[in-house]
């Protein structure tokens, strides 16, 4: 089965006031195939999230500053665990992914 991989990042949860200052996004590897979307911590070699398309819904947001190369497009993935959760991942390839699904 064929799939595509691209680099992205997710926001790390903020815990306490000091983490607001030291807050950094977590680099991830995003994998997609005919069955679903998978978010992988490439450094820890850990699958953070794997969802089939029927288990999720998604939305897309353009960069707020399209002329700023540091401002990335975003895909929001909404899914159900015990409650509705939303994961946002940022990636330059997000728009290409959106156009092919």
UniProtKB/TrEMBL annotation:
GO terms for cellular component: plasma membrane. It comes from the Eukaryota. Residues 26-65 form the KRIT1/FRMD8 FERM domain. It holds the Pfam family KRIT1_FRMD8_FERM_C. GO terms for biological process: negative regulation of canonical Wnt signaling pathway. InterPro entries: KRIT1/FRMD8 (IPR051594), KRIT1_FRMD8_FERM_C (IPR057096), PH-like_dom_sf (IPR011993). This is (California timema) hypothetical protein. It comes from Timema californicum.
């Amino acid at each position: 089965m064929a799939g595509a991989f691209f680099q992205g990042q997710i926001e790390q949860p903020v815990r306490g006031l000091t983490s607001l200052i030291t807050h950094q996004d977590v680099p991830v590897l995003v994998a997609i195939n005919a069955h679903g979307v998978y978010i992988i911590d490439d450094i820890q070699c850990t699958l953070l999230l794997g969802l089939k398309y029927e288990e999720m819904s998604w939305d897309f947001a353009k960069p707020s500053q399209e002329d700023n190369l540091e401002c990335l497009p975003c895909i929001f993935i909404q899914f159900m665990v015990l409650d509705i959760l939303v994961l946002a991942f940022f990636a330059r390839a997000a728009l290409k992914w959106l156009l092919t699904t």
